[in-house]
Amino acid sequence: MPVLPLLLVLALNAAPPVRMGSHGMVLFGQGSALYASHIPMFHPPHDVQLLLQVELTGKGLPADFARGLYTLDPERFDLSQLMAGKVRTFHAALYRGSFDGGGTVLQKDVTVRVRRVLHAAPLKADAPALPQLRYLVVGEGREGYLVHALGRAPDFDQVLRATFEKPLPAGVHVLELPRRENAVDTRLTPGAVPNATLDGAATHLEVAQELSFLRGPDFTP
User: Fold this and answer.
1) Best CA proximity match to 180, nearest among 130, 133, 146, 148
2) Cis peptide, bond prior to residue 217, ω within 30 of zero
3) How far apart are CA 143 and CA 165, in angstroms?
4) Which regions of 40-181 does DSSP assign to beta strands (E)?
5) Distance (Å, rounded) from C-alpha 148 to C-alpha 8?
6) Residues contacting residue 55 through CB under 8 Å, at least 6 positions apart
7) Threshold 0.85, pTM exceeds
8) What integer pLDDT is reported at residue 9 of this predicted model?
9) How far apart are CA 176 and CA 7, in angstroms?
């Protein structure tokens, strides 16, 4: 039996792309607390809520990305490979504002290095509805960023900057608003937040700014 060339064997054994596309992201934070949140949809290839801790390399970059909307329009890659940790760097155009409409290009080619995949969850339009308003929380010190946890379609995608009464522990945390409906009209907006829990314990915070808001199921501006 003939031996197949090594490159052909590798090609035959390679997994086919699952979620190939250009996966737009919201960029927020500063310094070592810099994050990218994938802009989702409830259909392939964008049917994943994905939160990354990243590093950015390029010329003339802003000092921070914590005081307004910044987005990334990346090169094409397989989102599933990124979720699995097999894509560690990618190139993207950086925008102030939305790359999908009205934004300004700051750099046409920046390098994004993925430091950590913080959260990865496939989306289903008919998933169980969330029982209450829920956010994923990341950050350093008392400054945190809230990313709305997605449930059943149509839902909404939102990123907020907030100040917490106590410094945040390392990692990703879950903020919940007991008895507050998970809906667009009841989402968090700038101001004090009463009756919230962080990982199940009562917490106090104040939302400073809404950095991004996209209404589902298509999540467009």
Assistant:
1) 133
2) yes
3) 9
4) 48-57, 65-74, 77-78, 89-96, 104-122, 133-140, 143-148, 156-164, 173-177
5) 44
6) 34, 112, 113, 115
7) yes
8) 36
9) 50
